[in-house]
Specification:
heterodimer, A: 5 domains, 21 strands, 15% strand, B: 116 residues, alpha+beta, Arc Repressor Mutant, subunit A, two-stranded antiparallel sheet, 53% helix
């Protein structure tokens, strides 16, 4: 350390001083010895000569002493860097191609890695986030359903595995008394929630355990954005009240802006305990999810065992229909990213392959150049450069190139991330957090070094294997195209074609999937459809009749609007996602085991709904106004459900029971079968679905679908007027044209298809450059041979087929390998392919044809050059 | 007077010994490089030959470690020369090195003197 420091100091003060000082010191010591010799009786001349002889080589001594002051390895390195830099500047086109190629490869990897990093790898921003788990219930048919309030309270009380536990549930309230009535979203949480997500209120406090009980004073904690935009950021908001569904809630706190736990925006948090009596039955489910933090060292499996023990005990003490329910737990970090994970790894794999193509392109260029530089290397070897020294230089040069490429790649990544964020569909968790953080920078640095080493690998193999005399005699022409090097270069191009085909095939599969999904018949006519959604507050619509009456008048009012052709109401409109499934059974079918009771989506529709939507009635009838309260209970099922039980006969006339054979529930007679409607995304499988008449079981939240004769947007003001005229305090939850809604369900698929398409295109361009470079080099190295052949009478067509054979051999091998690799890789694509097989032979052939076509076009340029070699001129020069 | 010719008959320096000898020679008082080489050759009874190509780099290393410092001075016969002097750190190093050497020599001697 001390040595290094004094060296550094001396380096800064200048090396010349050291040299002069040493020379003077040696001179003075020689003079001292000469004097001694004279004192011993020698003549001055002899004395000087003797002292010089005795001293030895003064210059060498000085140099060696001086060397003690140098950073030898650093200086060699800097020398190599300078040398490499000179080499790059000498052939700018070559350098530019190499650096750009590497920058593209490294940039694409950096960009996708930073997405993977922030979405999949970075810990969630909550304390002890790696121990946070989502809890729910499971039984033999379904995993991770909601936990009941009773079970949650028991878990909270008796578990030994968790530090903290909180329940949560989304709900909606109508805010009145502050201007227009507002439809607002609430998160009902137990008070442990704030501890679990580690948030401290910006103003005031969060609600206490005492306030989180049934019958306690009503309190609310505001989300930052709601406080800022809806309440004007008023600092005196604490202590004021919010009227929610007609009940006053006292504001006790405001949260800081950065809490992003719920996928949808939350306006305020209310104590869940206010809404639940502890005496609610243990089987009453209500969309409650639980969040909990494991104690350090406790595994998830052990914790589930602990909760299962509680569930078994409860089954004995408080038996019911759900005695077989067990605890379900999954790490929060997994639940947040499960749906996007396969796509991200797919993209990461794709950019990794692109970097491989970029590396082999660059390796090929470097190899070609090092062959051209063999004379220079031979000269350096001849004047004493060791093999180690040459290898070091090659490494330094390539790392330099990779380093420049890496730096440029970072810039590319920075800009492409902005584009990515702009294009990305909403709903990818944590995407806004994306950035080039330390981990990404380390990844890029590591990648750059690995890239440099990969690229340097080929020329290092050839260093020291140069035949000095032939290299020096050949006059600097690239005469060292050894067999080994040639096959290495060919292998690189074959690998490029292989990888490109895999990428082209994958991207083709995704494109076909997207098209298939877009062409999926959604089961209804989406054009010129306006969707109005309102939720009636229970405080003003106290019973089913009131709800019923409101919707009757609303539908009537809307159908009077000019431009409205038909109006129908449904509880769960298409693409709204699953609005809840439940067990059912078929009365005349075999009785299923308790663990085999089938599930179906349940929905409510009014008599006009199927007609309005254009959903075809396949058998029987739709609902009529006669299907009202007091009339026989009826249901309409979709085709999936009908075909499952009655593949040969009509489903009409059969009966189904809600809840299955092991649970109480009403029985309905099937009166009709309608076409399937995609209830989730266009690329999801249709589920069994049961419609019941709205008139027999009203719901406060209905979607009213209006078929318009013109542009649906023109009708919007009229719709608002009708709603306001019926209930001035009722907020409109959403009013949108349906045309784009179905397409939006494919946003994520479209995004990943676009990205993979870009990557496949990039791969195509890079490997086209690779094929071009290799063949061009091949032709250049053989110009003389071609000239001789032509002089001996070979025709252009002979030359063309000779060179063409060379090219097509590589392409064919690459295509065959690529087909095999693509076939194997399709296994990992299954989860993202829709509508076609992941092993679609047509797609494979199409991808192969595209790659062959591109390769053939790029090969044509050097091939045509081969036929235009001027034999006479070439031979004269040789 | 020693010459380079009888190199083969002299002892070669073991790794690190030259540095210890330089430190030891400076224990007698400040000296210049020529004086140090004279000292080593005289007190080793000409068994060691000091090669300047090793001596000068070794001295630079000792300076870098702050074990010795140098200063231009005028010699008794009024000649300018660069004089080296032990630093406190160098003195400590010499004590440690000396005891290591004594143990080393003793142990070598014991092993080599073993009979049988």
């Amino acid at each position: 350390m001390r040595e290094l420091w004094s060296k550094l100091r001396r380096t800064l003060t200048g090396r010349r001083a050291v040299t002069e000082d040493l020379a003077e010191e040696i001179e003075s010591n020689l003079a001292l010895e000469t004097e001694d010799n004279i004192a011993k009786g020698m003549r001055p001349d002899d004395a000087r000569a003797a002292s010089r002889r005795h001293f030895g080589n003064a210059t060498l001594t000085r140099e060696r002493a001086q060397d003690a002051w140098r950073f030898l390895s650093l200086e060699t390195f800097l020398q190599d860097v300078r040398y490499g830099w000179r080499g790059l500047r000498k052939s700018p086109a070559y350098s530019l191609i190499i650096i750009l190629t590497l920058a593209l490869g490294i940039g694409a990897n950096t960009a996708i890695f930073s997405v993977v990093n922030s979405v999949l790898l970075k810990p969630l921003p909550y304390p002890g986030s790696e121990r946070l788990v989502e809890l729910g219930e499971s039984h033999a048919k379904a995993e991770g359903i909601s936990v009941t309030w009773g079970n949650f309270r028991a878990w909270q009380k008796y578990n030994h595995s968790f530090e903290d536990m909180a329940a949560r549930q989304m709900d909606h309230f109508t805010l009145t008394g502050r201007g227009e009535p507002l439809f607002t979203s609430a998160a009902l949480v137990t008070n442990g929630f704030f501890r679990l997500v580690g948030t401290k209120p910006l103003l005031g406090r969060v609600f206490t355990e005492e306030e989180d009980r049934f019958g306690a004073t009503r309190t609310a904690v505001l989300a930052h954005s709601f406080w800022l935009t809806k309440l004007g950021g008023d600092v005196n908001v604490l202590g004021t009240t919010l009227a929610l569904n007609g009940q006053p809630y006292r504001v006790v706190g405001v949260l800081p802006p950065d809490l992003q736990f719920f996928p949808r925006s939350v306006d305020y948090y209310l104590p869940m305990g206010l809404f639940r009596r502890d005496s609610t039955p243990r089987t009453q489910h209500g969309s409650i999810r639980a969040l909990a933090r494991l104690k350090p060292g406790v595994t998830l499996a052990a914790a589930r065992n602990d909760l299962d023990g509680i569930m078994r005990r409860l089954a004995k003490e408080d038996p019911g229909t759900e005695n077989d329910h067990r605890a379900y737990g999954v790490f929060l970090s997994d639940t947040k990213t499960a749906s996007i994970r396969p796509t991200l790894w797919l993209l990461m794999g794709a950019v990794g392959l692109i970097l491989l193509i970029a590396c082999s392109n660059v390796a090929n260029l470097v190899l070609a150049r090092s062959a051209a530089r063999s004379r220079e290397i031979a000269i350096r070897t001849a004047i004493g450069a060791g093999r180690k020294r040459l290898i070091r230089q090659v490494l330094t040069e390539n790392l330099l190139v990779a380093g420049i490429g890496g730096a440029l790649g970072l810039a590319i990544a920075y800009w492409s991330l902005r584009a990515l964020l702009f294009l990305a569909p909403r709903g990818i968790p944590r995407l806004p957090e994306i950035g080039l953080d330390l981990r990404v920078l380390l990844f890029t640095a590591g990648l750059t070094i690995v890239t440099g080493l990969l690229v340097a690998f080929a020329p290092i193999l050839t260093v020291g294997k140069i035949d000095l005399s032939s290299a020096l005699n050949s006059g600097g022409r690239s005469g060292t195209d050894t067999r080994r090097e040639r096959s290495f270069r060919n292998a690189l191009v074959v690998a490029e074609i292989t990888i490109t085909l895999v990428l082209a095939f994958s991207s083709g599969l995704l494109l076909r999937s997207l098209i298939a999904a877009q062409n999926t018949n959604p089961g209804f006519v989406a054009e010129r459809l306006l969707d109005l959604e309102v939720v009636l507050p229970a405080s003003s619509y106290k019973n089913q009749q009131a709800v019923q009456n409101f919707y009757d008048r609303l539908l009537q009012g809307l159908s009077m609007l000019p431009g409205a052709k038909e109006v129908g109401a449904v509880n769960c409109p298409p693409s709204a996602g699953s609005c809840g499934d439940w067990w059912y059974s078929v009365l005349d079918g075999p009785i299923p085991a308790q663990s085999d009771v089938p599930l179906s989506l349940f929905n409510l529709a009014d008599p006009q709904y199927f007609q309005t939507m254009g959903i075809p009635v396949r058998e029987g009838r739709g609902f009529t106004t006669a299907d009202r309260k007091g009339a026989p209970l009826v249901a309409v099922v979709n085709e999936v459900l009908a075909r499952r039980w009655w593949p040969k006969e009509s489903a009409v006339g059969h009966s189904i029971k809600v809840g299955g054979p092991y649970m109480p529930g009403p029985t309905f007679e099937i009166v009709g079968v309608v076409g399937n409607v995609t209830q989730e995304g266009l690329d999801s499988k249709p589920m069994p679905e049961i419609y019941r008449p709205f008139a027999q079981d009203a719901s406060e939240g209905m979607a009213v679908m209006i078929r318009t004769s013109g542009d649906p947007k023109l009708l919007a003001p009229g719709v608002r007027r009708v709603v306001a005229s019926l209930d001035g305090n009722l907020p409109i939850q959403s009013l949108r044209s349906f045309e784009n809604v179905m397409g939006a369900t494919l946003a994520r698929r479209r995004f990943s298809t676009l990205l993979l398409g870009i990557f496949a295109g990039l791969a195509l361009i890079l490997s086209a450059v690779g094929v071009y470079g290799l063949l061009n080099y091949w032709v250049t190295a053989r110009e003389e041979e071609i000239a001789i052949r032509m002089a001996l009478g070979a025709r252009r067509s002979t030359i063309l087929s000779w060179a063409g054979m060379q090219a097509s051999r590589l392409i064919v091998i690459g295509i065959v390998l690529g087909m095999a690799a693509g076939w194997g890789a399709s296994h990992w694509l299954k989860s993202v392919v829709f509508g076609i097989s992941a092993r679609d032979p047509l797609m494979m052939i199409a991808a192969a044809l595209v790659v062959i076509l591109i390769a053939a076009i790029t090969a044509a340029i050097p091939l045509s050059r081969a036929t235009r070699v001027d034999a006479a001129r070439k031979l004269q020069r040789a | 007077m020693s010459t380079v010719d009888d190199l083969s008959e002299r002892l070669e320096f073991l790794q690190g010994t030259l540095e210890v000898l330089i430190l030891r020679s400076l224990q007698m008082g400040p000296n210049h490089a020529y004086g140090i080489s004279q000292f080593i050759e005289r007190f080793s009874e000409n068994e060691f030959l000091v090669d300047n190509g090793s001596l000068y780099p070794a001295m630079q290393r000792l300076v870098q470690r702050d074990w010795i410092t140098s200063q231009w001075k005028t010699s008794p016969n009024s000649r300018r020369a660069k004089y080296y002097r032990l630093t406190p750190l160098g003195r400590k190093q010499l004590v440690a090195a000396t005891s290591r050497w004594e143990r080393f020599v003793e142990a070598m001697g014991r092993v080599l003197a073993t009979r049988g």
